Amino acid sequence: MSKPKIAIVVGSTRAARFADVPTEWIAKIARSHADIDVEVVDLRDFPLPFFDEVASSAWAPSQNEVAQRWQKKVAEFDGFIFTAAEYNHGPTAVLKNAIDYAANEWNKKPAGFVGYGSVGGSRAVEQLRLYAVELQMAPVKSAVHIAWGDFLAVRQGEKKLEEIEHLNQAATALVNDVAWWAKVLKAARKADAIADEARAA
């Protein structure tokens, strides 16, 4: 079986976003893991409108071309790590919107989070975990929380993320968890598909 493919989803599209910094950092750590393949997926490349379909794509095909392209991209992956900025105690609207524009493509795959902002983005990550459960994902326990002091030090150029050891440790644990669950769940999904084919034969 091929190695699980993990997406690092950039959860902000603002021109002045900080998201590129943790994305590059976590992607480098993830790419050093021998058991997974990694791709950065930038929501800027999928300019989705605010959700305006007749129903979730779980119940009716999306009509919007960008939504269709987004769903095909999500379906390519066996697991996800989301960068999660915290705005007003929650995740970015653009990330929630992107999550809502796919459905079955998320199912039975692990999700991990790199939060930043006030209290390390923990309230945004907490909400994202709830969304993940509703979409039948497996949110992993390990997470990265770039707390305010570290965030400001990096933002102001005083430090780099790779120089902050407790964040490196958290990132390694996160990637290890996502990789393990991606491998296990990919095998389980394959077994389900084989069983479904056998029943249909």
From TrEMBL:
The residues covered by the NADPH-dependent FMN reductase-like domain are 4-145
GO CC annotations? cytosol
The GO terms describing molecular function are: FMN binding; oxidoreductase activity
One short Pfam name that applies is FMN_red
> InterPro entries annotated for this entry?
Flavoprotein-like_sf, FMN_Rdtase-like_dom, NAD(P)H-dep_reductase
Q: Which domain of life is it from?
A: Bacteria
Q: Which SUPFAM superfamilies match?
A: Flavoproteins (SSF52218)
Q: Which PANTHER family match?
A: CHROMATE REDUCTASE (PTHR30543), NAD(P)H-DEPENDENT FMN REDUCTASE LOT6 (PTHR30543:SF21)
Name used for this protein in its record? FMN reductase
Organism whose genome encodes this protein: Mesorhizobium sanjuanii
